[in-house]
Structures
1.
Amino acid sequence: MGVESERKHMLLIAFFFWGCSSLVRDRLYIMLGALLFSTGGVAIKASALTGWQLSCFRSFAAGIALLVFLPSARRAWTWRSLVVAIPFASTFTLFTLANKFTTAANAIFLQDTAPLYILLLGPFLLGERLRQRDLFLMVTLVFGLVLIFAASRETTINATDPRLGDILALVSGFTWALTVLGLRWIALRAPHYGESPTTAIVAGCFTASLVAVPFAFPIENATVGNWLIVAYLGIFQIGLAYVFISEGVLRLRALEVSLLLLVEPVFSPVWVWFFLNEMPAGLAIVGGVVVIVATAVHALRREGVDSPSTSSR
């Protein structure tokens, strides 16, 4: 009876998705991917495994899941995939460790300052021109960053070294910026050389796992609950999330994708507050709001400038 009920439930979900228009379905895919991403902080904190152990096993599980879920991840590997895998693996590792040391809010807010570094490095690495409106975003992101760092840091059971965690999260924002630039570098070559950014993501997962191996053993908390968390993080929070996003991003405008992905930093602190009663400092919340709003406003302003040229296609 239970199996039959579960089957009916899955069929209802399937009919709901296919009954939606393609655009609505794509938006739901992006939102579901962002929601899955947002659960990373609470899952990491809920596990008794160390940050290195979670990074090792979660990354390996994610790499396997992506190879299974995404056919594009199994072909067209090049040396560029391995180059971009390095900052991606660094981001994976740093973000996992940061969530063990500081609040989930600080970890995601500081990582989301990545656009600051993308704007700074874009002209040098990809030849992308820096515009006047980009300067406003950069100044605002720095202001939000300062607010987050100025927030009081109290050691708790879920945030054992907030200052160190904030630093790791800040560095993860820089490495994520390098990852985004690297993925864009591969994507620009894809139409002519058949390369896929997905290969860099998979390579990054396995690289992160390999780097963490020396620090992951011995395992003292190998309980069923901890392994279930590892499986969830790898298969669903990363693997399935990328499947949703890779499907939804094909037909949506860049503006919609950028705004819908902001679901992650909005909900990440909510999950940790709801399940673990972790409350970030007030100043950190204000700084996070500044970062999120500045990113959204910048996306809207960019669309307003770029839309005339894109609408003629």
Note: The CA atoms of residues 90 and 118 lie 16 Å apart.
2.
Amino acid sequence: MTNTLKFFKFALGGMLVVYLTGCASQKLKPMPDFDQYFRDGMAEFSKKKWDKAIEHFTLVVINTPGGELADDAQFYLGECYFGRKEYILAISEYEQVINKYAYSEYVEEAAYKIALSELKSSPRYQLEQEYSLKALQSFQDFLDTYPQSKFKAEAELKIGEIRSKLARKVFESGRLYRKLQEYKAAIIYLDKVLEQYYDTEWAEKARLEKAYCLIRLREFDQYELLLKEIIARATPQTDQNAIEYLRVSHRKELRKIEKEQRRKEE
């Protein structure tokens, strides 16, 4: 056997050993423990280390989409963003729970958290209330879907909170027009409060404001009827000074009319 042939056989054998060793090492490489990734994520979540928790939960969701903990990880992704007050991102993650894991025990809570995230995304009452309206609809849909939910009482409270916020926005518009002495325009907004948000604390305030507008418009018959309603609906929290102010304003307006009539007769 020539030296060249011996060298070729030796080199080939070495390459075979390297190849087999590589294959063996690949076969022996342990699979990632995604259950442990989830546990690590929960540990970081409990410490409010949102970024690290998100990394762990994302690995579980991506690598085990049909796994036993996939829906858990998906839900807690939403919880992480909720904890970071990134509510739009939280909504997206909660929606994934509902859309991808309809069987999950987290679907109900995810639906509630979507509505809550929309509410928390809404600005103060003076600004555009797109997310308040979305949240109102989402809470109402939630109660329709889960009438016996453990979140029922909280959802009902949030609906009341949103309706009060929306009512205040309309009421303040009416009050602004009243201050500008645009009484007919003011009544349009105040009537909207009474029609759409009759069950909020702003309804009584709207009746008081409307009564004053009717006095200034000299619609005394309507004023008298509304005053009777105000008194009939009065509670211990009703502003009695406001009612007395209406009576004083009414008498002043009547005296103005008398003076105007006397001037015409002179």
Note: Residues 122 and 131 are 5 Å apart (CA to CA).
3.
Amino acid sequence: MSELETAQQHLELALQRFEDALARRLAATGGDESTAQLDSEREKLARDVGTLQAECDRLGSALSDAEREQQLLRAVNEDVAQRLDGSINELNRLLEG
């Protein structure tokens, strides 16, 4: 699993924890829990979601950078392979001739 997928999974889990926590609170208090307490918990979970979203964005950017670098390295590798093949062919030609 990539880091981006992991971050997305963390985000989904945080949202699920929020929904579960709210359901538990409402069930435990019969819906009478103070709005201030619910707002506080909602704000904390919203910060967690924001943190996870920022991590997901950062990882997405890092993944894009890594993919660009991988493409560059692949091109360099192909160039080196062609040069080596040419050198080997030249050496074989000189040895045979």
Note: The chain has a mean pLDDT of 86.
